Amino acid sequence: MTKLDDAVLLEKEDRAGPWRAALSSQIAGPLAALVLAIVIFSATTDSFLNPGNLSLIAQQSVVVGTLALGQTLVILTAGIDLSNGAIMVLASVVIGNLATDGNVLGALLAGLATCLVLGLLNGVLVSQFSLPPFIVTLGVLSVLTAAARLYTDSQSYPITSEFLTALNEGPAFGGVTITYGVMLWIGLTAILGYALTQTAWGVRVYAVGDNPRAAALTGIKVKRVLLSVYLTAAVVYAFAAWQALGRTPTADPSGYATANLDSITAVVIGGTSLFGGRGGVVGTLIGALIVTVLANGLTQAGIDSLYQQVGTGVLVVIAVAVDHFVRTRQTR
Amino acid sequence: MKVNRVAAAALAAGIFLTATACGSDDSGSSSGSSGNSDVTIGIVELNLSNPFFGTLQKATEAAATAKGWKTMKAEAKVPGDSATQVTAIENMIANKVKAIVLDPANPTALNPVVKKARDQGILVITVNATLTPIEGADATFATDNTEAGKLIGQWAKASAPANPRIAMLDFDLSDGPAGGRHNGFLEGYGIKDGDPSIAGAALTKGTIETGQSAMENLLSAHPDINVVYTINEPVARGANTALKNKGINNATVVSVDGACSGVQDVKDGIIGATAMQFPSKMGELAVDAIAKYLADGTKPTAGLNDSGTTLITDKPVDGLESQTSEWGLQNCWGEK
């Protein structure tokens, strides 16, 4: 650790009070929205507030929720990753195809390798060549969507391996199953949350996202931090691919076509700023839950699914408005 | 640094060009050279991420190639993407194709460009879906989706328990085939939208994972669901996972498509009955109609020419013609 890192950490410790307050207030908004949605659906339907349904909501959130954790890292650096859903889908069909030979661990590792190679591609283009992440990942998205189709000839692979679908299993408490997938999601959130708030790496990520020039002047190697973010996100996407195979035991090249935008939605509703440098993974976890709660609750209330999209859209605009308000007040 | 920028720009341009090329393949693909090698036809499909449209495109192209024609191909990028199809047809008109086989992404959005093509003497045949009004095209070769829905509705009615609780797993009902199947199912079952025996309906995107989530949500609210209508077989596969997770093994699941994977699901008892479509036949019939028009100017019969629907089930019911899953596996489309 360099002296500068120490200095940054020290400065952060000095401001622990206001920092913590700001952080908790960032989560307060999404949390209030989640509680409000839960209260409304509990009051208007008989079936929403039962333990089985609440566990189902968590299970329905894990795939996009896990993708959104990686997306959060990228957005914290003022980037965006439009290719994360396509990376996950390509990894899952690679795993599904290779697993037909029976070597499931090898297949899973090949999926991880796929994610890492693509994360490296995105990361190098963004950090070393200073290309805009939006354009880089848009291009990669197009290529990968076609690649998954060509690789599979548009067919899907049923998954029979118990190891690959293990994340859909888990201990049951009174008929309610808490799947390993849900535990993994929460675990990843905790690890990334710790890394972002308690390590020098996390401080550098926020600094780069907040103001890359200033970060560079303090001695932070901006390019290296950016590359590390895209690679870390890629590892998270590999977990998302495993989550997807557990939840739906089929590797489907045409699935999760809107997972990239869904993950951005979760990040934004969770209070992370698209301008970088502010937000966190706990908010993203809440954001992903809010989106699922809307879909689940509205279906149970017998309301047309299109209103789910209306509700989600309104929340996104509110979240961005709140972020804008906070930013302009900070700079005043 | 400057070199880096240039290299990066080149790389980005490369990725973009590749991406665009994948999205819409307008470039002509030449074929065998017989006496008709000056004939080019256009094939405009829906998003090829769905194997059904891929099968339809390949069958159409193979039939055209067999006649010694050249083809120009294009496809929608996502469901409902009529804009890409409009551009493709404009390019085909400019390239003076003799005929266009079109699987329209939207029943009305393509009307103006199709009219423009027909005004230039190009024969336009729609496959799989229709324009509104159907006379917008010279002819249509498609599954009668209302009929397909009716078949599985009648089968479900005869096979369902005494106290049916129906789940409707739909696709956007403004889509022609999706609306036809939905209404056909209800008609075959002898009920209307809003009937108390319908426990609930949910929109899917026609994929496995959206089918699973929709089924899970409906089951949470109505654990007594025992009849499930699905828009297609991937959705039925997803619904089955949801039912299985919930410990329900005796629900009556019906679907439409007749893909080999779906017929296998009928054989395995996951789907009770499915209405098989014949995408290859649609394409072949369309090419035959074009050949006749080019030979002597005879236009095909306007309106919907049914390419056929067959009910596939291993539990036949009285008064409803059907074939077994064994027969289905011989006649299905897509990868086995």
Automatic annotation (TrEMBL), chain A:
<feature type="transmembrane region" description="Helical">
    <location>
        <begin position="21"/>
        <end position="44"/>
    </location>
</feature>
<feature type="transmembrane region" description="Helical">
    <location>
        <begin position="306"/>
        <end position="326"/>
    </location>
</feature>
<feature type="transmembrane region" description="Helical">
    <location>
        <begin position="133"/>
        <end position="152"/>
    </location>
</feature>
<feature type="transmembrane region" description="Helical">
    <location>
        <begin position="56"/>
        <end position="75"/>
    </location>
</feature>
<feature type="transmembrane region" description="Helical">
    <location>
        <begin position="105"/>
        <end position="126"/>
    </location>
</feature>
<keyword id="KW-1133">Transmembrane helix</keyword>
<dbReference type="Pfam" id="PF02653">
    <property type="entry name" value="BPD_transp_2"/>
</dbReference>
<protein>
    <submittedName>
        <fullName>ABC transporter permease</fullName>
    </submittedName>
</protein>
<feature type="transmembrane region" description="Helical">
    <location>
        <begin position="82"/>
        <end position="99"/>
    </location>
</feature>
<feature type="transmembrane region" description="Helical">
    <location>
        <begin position="282"/>
        <end position="300"/>
    </location>
</feature>
<feature type="transmembrane region" description="Helical">
    <location>
        <begin position="225"/>
        <end position="245"/>
    </location>
</feature>
<feature type="transmembrane region" description="Helical">
    <location>
        <begin position="172"/>
        <end position="196"/>
    </location>
</feature>
<feature type="transmembrane region" description="Helical">
    <location>
        <begin position="257"/>
        <end position="275"/>
    </location>
</feature>
<dbReference type="InterPro" id="IPR001851">
    <property type="entry name" value="ABC_transp_permease"/>
</dbReference>
<keyword id="KW-0812">Transmembrane</keyword>
<keyword id="KW-0472">Membrane</keyword>
<keyword id="KW-1003">Cell membrane</keyword>
From TrEMBL, chain B:
<comment type="similarity">
    <text>Belongs to the bacterial solute-binding protein 2 family.</text>
</comment>
<feature type="domain" description="Periplasmic binding protein">
    <location>
        <begin position="43"/>
        <end position="295"/>
    </location>
</feature>
<dbReference type="Pfam" id="PF13407">
    <property type="entry name" value="Peripla_BP_4"/>
</dbReference>
<keyword id="KW-0732">Signal</keyword>
<dbReference type="InterPro" id="IPR025997">
    <property type="entry name" value="SBP_2_dom"/>
</dbReference>
<protein>
    <submittedName>
        <fullName>Substrate-binding domain-containing protein</fullName>
    </submittedName>
</protein>
<dbReference type="InterPro" id="IPR028082">
    <property type="entry name" value="Peripla_BP_I"/>
</dbReference>
<feature type="signal peptide">
    <location>
        <begin position="1"/>
        <end position="21"/>
    </location>
</feature>
